[in-house]
C-alpha cells in the first residue's frame, strides 16, 4: 500500500472541484425518485434503430477507417457535413481549418481553459452559469467576474460597469466572456439580439474574446430564432461550441468548435495530448445520420415532444404553485432547451431544503451550485425533458408541498 500518495497529487488536482450534479446523479438513480435534476434527454427518444442502421453501414463500407485512429482535427467528411449544416441553418460560412470535432462540449470547455487560462486569469461568467464550464475554468486557476441575468439573458450593461472599475492590467487578465445565449443552462433565458450586439461592442472595445456555448440552440419551441453571436461578430472575436449530446445522444460524446484558424490550431495541439482524437467510430455514425437527413428528422421529433413537456411543466407549475400564494415565488418561461429556473422567497434555502425533497422522493439542483460565489441560495434548476408527463405532475405537486413546508408563519 502506497500511503503517502495523497501528498503527491498536484496543486491542480487538489483544486479541481467535484461536480455536485455528477455526485447528485449517483444519488438519485433509484427508480422511485422523480428527478428534475439532470440536464439529460428523454431516453425513450434515443434513435437506437437509426444508430443500428448507420453502424451496420459504416462497418460494412469502411471498417478500416472507423476502427482506426483518426486525425485530431476530426474526420474530414464529418467536418464537411457540419460546415454545410452551419451554412444552411445559421448562414455561417467557415472553412475546414475553422472547425474542430471534439469529444462533446465538455472537452471543448476544458481545452479552452487549457489554452487560455493561467492561474489568476479571469473569466466573465453569468450568475448563474453552467457548472461544468465553471469547473473546467476553475481547474486551470481561473477567477471569475459574475454578471447577473434577467429574462433577456446576461445583463451585458453590467459588464461595462464592472470593466470601468478595473485597471488596464486587470482587464488584460480577462481571457474571455463565457456566455450561453440560447435557453441558458441553468436559467433557461435567451440573450436578446440587442444584447448580443452590445456584447460584441463591449468585447471589441476592450479587446475581449467571447466564448459562445450553444448546446440547446436547436431545441427551440417558442418564438423566432436569434442569430448566433458568431454570425453577428467580426471573425476572430468569437469561439462557438456545439454539442450533439442534447439533439442526438450524450453517450456518443460528440461536439465541435468553430473559431479562427489560430485558435483551432492551438486547440488541436492541446487535444493531441488529451485524447489523440475523438472516436472515428462515433464520428462515422453521426456522419451517416447527417448525410441522409435522419438526424434533422429526429430533431424535429425531439422539438415536438419537448415543446409539449415544457408546456405541461408550466401548466402544472401554475396548478400547484399559484395556490401557495407566495408573491416572491417565480419561474422562467424558456423558449427552448431543457430547463427552467425557480426563485423562491429570499429566506428559503434550496440546499437545506433538499433532504426534505428527497424524503418526498423528488430531486432538483440547488441554484447555488451554478453560482461561482455560492450565492443564489433561494433558487433551483428544474429539468423538464427527462421526467414523463405523469411524473412532472406528481413531482411538481410534491415540490409544492416541500415549499409549503418552508413557509414562515
Ligand atoms: C451549457 C453547456 N455546455 C456544455 C455542456 C456539456 O455537454 P457535453 O459534454 O455532453 O457536450 C452542457 C451539458 O449539459 C451544457 O449545458
Describe the structure.
This protein is an alpha/beta fold and 409 residues long. It folds into two domains: 5-47 and 297-404, Aspartate Aminotransferase, domain 1, CATH 3.90.1150.10; 61-295, Aspartate Aminotransferase, domain 2. The chain is built from 17 helices and 14 strands. It has helices spanning 5-8, 11-15, 20-27, 48-61, 63-66, 76-90, 104-116, 131-138, 156-164, 168-172, 193-205, 229-232, 261-275, 280-291, 294-321, 350-359, 389-404; strands spanning 34-35, 99-102, 122-127, 143-150, 153-154, 174-179, 209-213, 238-243, 255-258, 330-331, 339-343, 362-363, 365-366, 379-383. The strands form three sheets. An eight-stranded mixed beta sheet has the order 2-9-8-7-6-3-4-5, with helices on both faces. The chain has a four-stranded antiparallel beta sheet with strand order 10-11-14-13. Strand 4 and strand 5 form a beta hairpin. Helix 7 runs parallel beside helix 8 (131-138) and helix 9 packs parallel to helix 11 (193-205). The chain is globular, with a radius of gyration of 22 Å. The protein binds pyridoxal-5'-phosphate (PLP). Residues 39, 104-106, 130, 132, 180, 185, 213, 215, 243, 245, 250, 255 line the site of pyridoxal-5'-phosphate.
